[in-house]
Amino acid sequence: MLILDSGVGGLSVLKNIKKNLPKINYVYMLDNEAFPYGNKTEWFILQRSIKIINTIKKIYPITIVVIACNTVSTVALSILRNKFNLPIIGIFPAIETAEKITKNKIIGLIATQATINSFYTKNKIQKNSSNTIKIISTNKLALIAEKKIRGTTVSQIQLKNIFKPWINLSICPDTVILGCTHFSLLREEIKKILCVKSSIYFIDSINIITYQVKNYLNQSEIKLNIKKNIFLYSKKNDNFKKLLVFLKKYQFEIIEYINLN
Ligand code: DGL
What we know:
alpha/beta, Rossmann fold, 2 domains, globular, binds D-glutamic acid, peptidoglycan synthesis
């Protein structure tokens, strides 16, 4: 199984997959060279994910791909599925789930710029007629999550600035979609900023993608041939080294640089 993200966001998906499918081995690809994906063009995101899958496929016997990134999934999943003869499972902002849950009919959606601008997301928003969807499109929050994981305290001021459009509303969303896997790592900090006046229901689709992976593996005859838990990264630098402490708890047996150029 290949699990792919631009950064640490996908580790929140991996954590849940490990919990539900403890016997499975995986290759985790952290594309830190191209992080963040959120400010890239759709063409770049598509080409980059094709490159990653092709490169890794040649080295490791992957038989299923989990795109643990809303940005890649919303922009490129359908094209990737057509291109590769492999099952590919993605993660998407759970707009339909939020529609079922909201009581005050105000939904908050926060995601990267590329996710918000994607045809997938625009189409889902357009189809929603009975609720108001308040959108925050940001590429800054994923970076804050990356820094938190490396030990930097999350700045309340920076968070307040990002969430200002909702903080200033007279009626806040009662249901918030965390439409980027990085944001799940900031759930507690986001709660503190937003849930001042009332409680908010947060949805991040991580249970949904895990369920889909589990379901797929139960139903298919697919063989999982990876024998170790492997972590790959695409850029060697000091910022990557700072991540090693956090990675310890995931118990990867191999941590290796991969050249994607
Ligand atoms: N974790 C990613 C997502 O779910 C991407 C963040 C980024 O690279 O901008 O969208």
